[in-house]
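Extended Data, panel c. Modelled sequence:
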Amino acid sequence: MSRIGLKPIPLPDKVQVDIRGSHVTVKGPKGELDRSFHPDMEIALEHGVLSVSRPTDQRHHKALHGLTRSLLANMVTGVSEGYTLNLEIVGTGYRAEMQGPNLVLYLGHSHPITVEPPEGLSFEVPRGGRTVTIQGIDKEVVGEIAARIRRQRPPEPYKGKGVRYENERVRRKAGKAGKVGK
C-alpha cells in the first residue's frame, strides 16, 4: 500500500490543471509546467483535489503510484510558491558574482566559471559573494543546477573549503600530526 500515492493533492487558488490522458499541464502565478506520466497511472481532478490511482497492486505499479503523486505535488508547489536553494561558498578568495543573468564563480581555478541559467531559473548573489540563491519553479532543475555548481568545487574535509548546500554538514578530518621529537 503506497502511503504517498494515496494522499490527495489540494490545489491552491489560481492553480489550474489540464489532464489529457497521461499528459498533465499545471498553470499558476509563477509559471507553467507540463509533464507526461506513465500511461498506467490514472490521474483525476475532482473538486479542486488531484488524486492518483493505480490499476493493480504489482510492484512496479506501486512504485509508479508514489512517484507520480510526488511529481504532481512538486509541480503544483512549483507553480504556486516556487523552489529556492541556497549554496554557501567557503574559502579564501572564493566568491561569486552576477554578470547580467549569468553567475560567475571564482573557485581557485585558473579561470572563472560562468553558469548560464536555464529558462525559468534565476540566480541571486547577495553583497559579499559568499552565498548563491537559486530560484525556479521546477524542483528537479533547481536541484540539478545546484548540484552542478557544487560539483565545480565540492567541500574538502581538511579545511572545509568549497561550495556546499546551506545547512550541509561537512565531516572534517584531522590533518597530519607532523614530526614530533626533533
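The radius of gyration is 22 Å. This feature is highlighted in the accompanying rendering.
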